[in-house]
Amino acid sequence: MDNLKPHPANSCPLTPLTFLERAAIVYGDCTSIVYNNITYTWSDTYIRCLEIASSISSLGIQRGHVVSVVAPNIPAMYELQFAVPMSGSVLNNINTRLDARTISVLLQHSESKLVFVDYYLRSTVLEAISLFPDGLTTPLLVLITDHHTTNDADYDFSVLGFRDTYEGLVEKGSVHEFEWVRPNNEWDPMTLNYTSGTTSSPKGVVHSHRSLFIIAFDSLVNWCVPKQPTYLWTLPMFHSNGWSYTWGMAAVGGTNICLRKFDAGIIYTSIKLHKVTHLCGAPVVLNMLANSPLAKPLKNPVHFLTGGAPPPATVVLRTESLGFVVSHGYGLTEVAGVVVSCAWKPIWNMLPATERAKLKARQGVRTLGMTEVDVVHPETGVSVKKDGLTLGEIVLRGGCLMLGYLKNPEGTSKCLRENGWLYTGDVGVMHPDGYLEIKDRSKDIIISGGENVSSVEVESVLYTNPVVNEAAVVAKPDDFWGETPCAFVSLKEDHVHKKPKEKDILEFCRARLPHYMVPKTVVFMDELPKTATGKIQKFSLREYAKKMGMLPTTATAAAAAASRL
């Protein structure tokens, strides 16, 4: 068999872009996108993506150039997940909540050649462009207008500094004279996503066509997504391309319900109006749905995939009582989606609800698309004991891992080690049954008097308190202990006016936690600060806890510091 070699017929580059091409044939007359009173079919979406890709190429954008998008979950944002790479360029989604200075840094770092900008975000992006150093070439700008509030004819977009409008490019695109640009190699870069808004050392994660094909396919299988689901876009598409469900929905001919913004009321209304079957989001979205005054049992089950942070068991329990079928997954930008999930065993259905919720809060086992997942000692690389207690760093190995960080060889080598593993920076344990459970980010572990305190465990206890709406625990500097746990909490609406005291929360924790894990300070807030993906901004809370460490340890002093958040 030594003379058998790969052939052009069996070694075509893998790319998730082919999902759209197939969807136009199989699901051509079926609804692809719904946004307010706009509806497109999969045939429409395929043609529109080709037209945009054609226009991008006509602007002088070449294979490998970076094209950025700053937009919420609207139809243009969805279409650009296909259209940009179909032009041969690399797609760069930018967090819509970043400030102008950070966006400017990311555009410069990526050397973006073209930026699609939502109408409501134009002033921020224009300010970002104005911050470019003299002599540095700025990218072309295309304005995305909202059909319901603006009209291309209402203003001269060129005066605003834009080359054209999105719909203008759709009209100018040539479907008959343009063939979408297929990758020469499946390892060709397809997307660039920044992991955070840091300006000192941006970490731009580069993914190949191959890795995104694998994760998009794997995500559908792992979540058991059927043909033609109705998917509600509550997860920002700029966050790891919507965990790769942007491409996944094309593979199964799903209907994408797009939302410019959302809250609990909009979500419940959309579920009822469009008969939604699936949605994704961070645990904070689960919490928001469970605690909303509008919450009431659903008529039909709705599948909710959550990730980004370990969901407290009490939140899972409350949400499932409403009719949501909660699945818990774990992933990171470096793997483009969910790569560990809590694969459910039928025998667990026999357990009490509280036990089921605790099991569901675990991250679980590797998905089919992953090769290996382990928890190891961060220095020796040796696997930790499978006792559910011994902490270690979570490491991954599989086909959906990133190519590396853009222009950051040091960061790439630190993450992608020579021993063949990707080191995540997440701290976890391995249970005897082989299921993984995250205990914290390495930077979120609190070391108090030499003891490791998992902020996640303390938060899980706080969430069982009936008055607590949101909770986050971070390290607060302490002269004696080095660090002590500091809890930031918001209260449920019906408890805001009859506010508990700090000692009430502390006593609640003392009854349920080892003494060293009990917070030494509790700060009440109207709402905890969050990132654009719904994660609580622990870095902000850590900064204020650090400032609080210089003040007397009292609730009054803590509240004064928190009021500046």
UniProtKB/TrEMBL annotation:
Span of domain AMP-dependent synthetase/ligase: 21-406
GO BP: phenylpropanoid metabolic process
Protein name: 4-coumarate--CoA ligase
Superkingdom field: Eukaryota
CDD domains, per database record: ttLC_FACS_AEE21_like
Pfam families: AMP-binding, AMP-binding_C
Family to which this protein belongs: Belongs to the ATP-dependent AMP-binding enzyme family.
Organismal lineage: Eukaryota, Viridiplantae, Streptophyta, Embryophyta, Tracheophyta
Cross-referenced PROSITE patterns: AMP_BINDING
MF-aspect GO terms: ligase activity
Coiled-coil intervals, chain numbering: none
UniProt pathway annotation: Phytoalexin biosynthesis; 3,4',5-trihydroxystilbene biosynthesis; 3,4',5-trihydroxystilbene from trans-4-coumarate: step 1/2
InterPro entries: AMP-bd_C (IPR025110), AMP-bd_C_sf (IPR045851), AMP-binding_CS (IPR020845), AMP-dep_synth/lig_dom (IPR000873), ANL_N_sf (IPR042099)
Domain AMP-binding enzyme C-terminal: 457-535
This protein's UniProt keywords: Ligase, Phenylpropanoid metabolism
Record bears the keyword Ligase: yes
